[in-house]
Amino acid sequence: TVAVVLFTRDLRLRDNPALRAALASADAVVPLFVRDDAIAATGYAVPNRQAFLADCLTDLDRQLRERGGRLVVRSGDVVEQVCSVLHETGATDVHMAADVSAYAQAREDRLRRALAAGRRRLHVHDRSVTVVAPGDITPAGKDHMAVFTPYFRRWATAPPREVLAAPRRVHVPAGVRSEPVPSREDVRGAAPGVGRGGESAGRARLAAWTRSGLDAYAERHDDLAADATSRLSAHLHFGTLSPVELVARARRRGGLGAEAFVRQLAWRDFHHQVLAARPAASRADYRPRGDRWRTEEQAGEEIEAWQQGRTGYPVVDAAMRQLLHEGWMHNRGRLLAASFLTKTCYVDWRVGARHFLSLLVDGDVANNQLNWQWTAGTGTDTRPNRVLNPLAQAARYDPDGAYVRRWVPELEGIAGRAVHAPWKLHGTGRAAPGYPAPVVGLADGLTRFRRARGG
Ligand code: FAD
């Protein structure tokens, strides 16, 4: 018998429930990845993620070959490609990981219908993309949890599933047609600082992080210059690392750092379960607040300055330039940059979310859209009208200004915290030529936002 494993956001051999189930149920397995036309058509397949994805596929193929198999790559409509592989191999069963976006849910429905019509079976495995399955933790009579803290309380006590070892051998039937596995060199236009993708690179990063970062995570994760977070987000997005395994390892390690890290992984699950129940929240306000956001016409200059890292607020600009250069941004940077756009400039969160998704290697429908909604106050934040002041944020999370000097070279000559308000240096001979004046006044922004929200 032959089974197909359709890899999606679970591009790993270790702790992969779909792969494990396929291997346990059939003599031969087709490890299939489809370069899906529908995803390309949405504009989601941007160079930074494509570069990382190519690494993931190259590494998956290499690891499969070490075990006697190989990766089969096809392009086109995912349902047509799966059906064509079933037809060519006589396979009867398809295994894949459960996922949450509107697109992923529609893909699953289409596959299920197409397979049922040919008397074949689709097996969808949860607790692969997330630690706890969406819908497993719900208040009575509801389909998801809308507040993080009570969600986390229950999430933290959910019985863990066993972490699965990688298979030793993978037997792939002969003669299955495959396109060449994409390689990173084929991708044009990725940012210079995009990290290496693939399970092997993910495991190396995980080992280094567990050795040298995890224990201090609780104290240091908000320090912008320390760069003391795991940087595992893209590996989690593409599933080159399993979130179930990460939680198990952190719990084994124990301590305050590990606890704080596990809590962040619970945030990831939290947003996934919101999106699974409310797929429209990727576009529409989860909790509408009657906003009449300034349009791209009204706020064009501010939006452009924000995207380019030239708002005149150094900490915002540093964060935005880190994104341009690395396709990644520190979480504290994401929070203050998103608050600046939505609350100080009063621009629609969708404008910011789109820009982030065009660059973030970890760009993720659940985490990105729902964190943007959280920051804009249209999501699950229980204090939706809080506004992060970039100067106060800078003083607290980049007290010495090192993060700003790293990313904003025009300001590298200004020592200490004075770097956060270069406009105060005019006339002192220390001003930074070429660095813009603030594009909007903080007090004006605050007044506009309070009026808009009726505060
Ligand atoms: P760590 O601090 O090491 O955290 C470990 C893991 O926990 C992360 O890799 C991530 O998977 C998860 N995590 C941490 N914080 C959050 C959070 N607030 N929400 C959900 N999961 C979290 N994360 C993405 O993975 N993709 C996105 O597209 C994304 N967009 C964001 C947009 C905005 C406006 C904001 C405020 C946050 C966004 N985040 C997103 C969440 C968070 O900023 C990143 O996950 C984190 O910065 C990634 O770096 P890290 O792996 O070093 O995180």
Automatic annotation (TrEMBL):
Signal peptide range: none
Obligatory cofactor(s): FAD
Gene3D superfamilies, per the entry: 1.25.40.80, DNA Cyclobutane Dipyrimidine Photolyase, subunit A, domain 3 (1.10.579.10), HUPs (3.40.50.620)
Recorded superkingdom: Bacteria
UniProt-listed InterPro entries: Crypto/Photolyase_FAD-like_sf, Crypto/Photolyase_N_sf, Cryptochr/Photolyase_FAD-bd, Cryptochrome/DNA_photolyase_1, DNA_photolyase_1_CS_C, DNA_photolyase_N, Rossmann-like_a/b/a_fold
SUPFAM superfamilies linked to this entry: Cryptochrome/photolyase FAD-binding domain, Cryptochrome/photolyase, N-terminal domain
A Pfam family recorded for this sequence: FAD_binding_7
Region of interest (Disordered), residue spans: 176-200
PROSITE patterns (UniProt xref): DNA_PHOTOLYASES_1_1, PHR_CRY_ALPHA_BETA
Keywords, in A-Z order: Chromophore, FAD, Flavoprotein
Record's keyword annotation contains Cytoplasm: no
Occurrences of domain Photolyase/cryptochrome alpha/beta (ranges): 1-132
Family designation: Belongs to the DNA photolyase family.
Protein name as it appears in the record: Deoxyribodipyrimidine photo-lyase
Species in which this protein is naturally found: Streptomyces luteosporeus
